[in-house]
Amino acid sequence: MSAPTSHFVIFHKKGPKWPSEGLSLSDPIAQEHAQYFAQFVSQGKLLEGGPFPGHSGGMMIFDSGVGEEEVRTIAENDPARIAGVMDFEIKQWMRVFGA
């Protein structure tokens, strides 16, 4: 087993302007949100991300080289957060094993 690596994870949750019917992946703000985070995948900063079932939020796992301050800045500039549709929480995660 290799040494643990530290990653920061954004947990997305419903913001004050979350639609009562839920958010569809085809909604314009969801598209903006996805396009915004796609740039960090292209840059090698964002490893994985996506929604939880049942409109209960989602998560984004960042590469171990991306620090908490940068992840916080990324989360704060998310168009869905700025629009009040989503809010976020950041947690540090210790990856012990995996592919």
UniProtKB/TrEMBL annotation:
Residues 24-93 form the YCII-related domain. Belongs to the YciI family. It comes from the Bacteria. This is Uncharacterized protein YciI. The lineage of its organism: Bacteria, Pseudomonadati, Pseudomonadota, Alphaproteobacteria, Hyphomicrobiales. It comes from Maritalea mobilis. It holds the Pfam family YCII.
